[in-house]
Design a protein that fits this description.
It contains three helices and five strands, in the order H-H-E-E-E-H-E-E. By secondary structure, the chain is of the alpha+beta class.
């Protein structure tokens, strides 16, 4: 964590992310909401409402055998115009999302500093490409945009979020 001004105690970010992913999947695909929703799931729902995005499907499998590349789309939504958008959900990385203490990425991105934000942009880029070039249940629909939804705790431990377009 070199370069991080304030180092917080670890809070199980992967476990929280998996819990929010599961709650999202149950809500979108099965119309079930947990009796005890994670606060970051509640923030996710608030952001979707603010953006005017209607969830369509969660955890859509995508893959390309030629590239040996596969992933799942965290969330597919429709915007106010009925156009499809992808949402890559990221929970955590509270105080080090933009810290570039890992050097630069490998070629052809070797002029880009390695940060978690940049890694997530690349992940979303590949996910969007797979969505547009693979066969799946939404193949007949055009993708309008792709977003990273980053939900985290600020230095006062308040849950905050930011939405970044690819």
């Amino acid at each position: 964590l070199k370069g991080v001004p304030i180092i917080k105690k670890k809070k199980g970010g992967r476990r929280t992310g998996n819990k929010v992913d599961d709650q999202l999947y149950q809500w979108v695909n099965h119309n079930k909401i947990s009796k005890y929703p994670d606060p970051k799931f509640t923030e996710l729902k608030k952001v979707l409402k603010q953006q005017g995005w209607t969830p369509v499907y969660s955890q859509l499998d995508l893959g390309c055998t030629s590239l040996r590349l596969g992933t799942r789309v965290d969330l597919i939504c429709e915007n106010k115009d009925g156009e499809l958008i992808l949402v890559e959900l990221k929970c955590g990385f509270d105080d080090y999302y933009d810290i570039g203490n890992q050097g630069n990425m490998l070629a052809p991105f070797d002029d880009i500093e390695t940060t978690f934000r940049h890694k997530h942009y690349l992940q979303l880029l590949f996910t969007s490409w797979l969505f547009c070039h693979c066969s799946h249940k939404y193949s007949d629909r055009i993708l309008k945009d792709s977003y990273i939804l980053h939900i985290y705790n600020d230095n006062n431990n308040n849950i905050v979020s930011e939405v970044d377009v690819l």
